[in-house]
Amino acid sequence: xxxxxxxxxxxxxxxxxxxxxxxxxxxxxxxxxxxxxxxxxxxxxxxxxxxxxxxxxxxxxxxxxxxxxxxxxxxxxxxxxxxxxxxxxxxxxxxxxxxxxxxxxxxxxxxxxxxxxxxxxxxxxxxxxxxxxxxxxxxxxxxxxxxxxxxxxxxxxxxxxxxxxxxxxxxxxxxxxxxxxxxxxxxxxxxxxxxxxxxxxxxxxxxxxxxxxxxxxxxxxxxxxxxxxxxxxxxxxxxxxxxxxxxxxxxxxxxxxxxxxxxxxxxxxxxxxxxxxxxxxxxx
Length: 284
Known about the structure:
The chain has helices at about 20-35, 65-75, 120-125, 155-160, 185-200, 250-260, 260-265, 270-280, and strands at about 5-10, 40, 60, 80-85, 95-100, 105-110, 135, 140-145, 165-170, 205-210, 210-215, 215-220, 225, 230-235, 240-250. The protein is α/β, with parallel strands linked by helices. A hairpin with a 2-residue loop joins strand 11 (about 210-215) and strand 12. It is globular.
């Protein structure tokens, strides 16, 4: 299996300015093309910014829109994963991510878990996705998730059991909390999560987070790639825009799973039975 070059586009989108953000995305694609990237990943809501509130409908793109057609056309020589606001057929709006490759949209995910606590208000403005599905790609089987999705371990578990060899997490994570070591608490939490998912599920994990400010709230960056043993392969800086590339050997997934038999030994039927029992007990 030939190694691939992965690009992490750690960008600073402008809130609500889709045209300006399209230009940022185009620039990232050209940089990736010049660097020989095979798979380029942008953050959550890269085309719109995060704290949209009432302007969600004005920053949305239907799947057949010229904006996404432009991204699809750019994917003829490299795969591109992009986060954006999707306008559905019934004019519902979704926090979504798509994988474009070979000139077309080949996989799509709508964010399932919409944070609506503290500073977050997503469920006030977005409809929920209803599935976690992996898809076959030319890099192997891949699962997409958006930020809060991965705070629910069942999401990563479902994608793993659906055959995902590569887990891609698009994020717009604001800075929160400070540790004794003067680091953000949220940074340490995310880094533990990504390393745990990579090692436990013998997957390559790609985490892409944005940077910048919106309404005084900071996004901390720190995008990274982890190998299937949990080892960090590449890391973008905290707080600053950057474009990071890393050559990844997909054969490492097989090597790791020869050593770690967790996937082979996992009893999915038992898990389903126990969850059904728990559901029934809660409704008695």
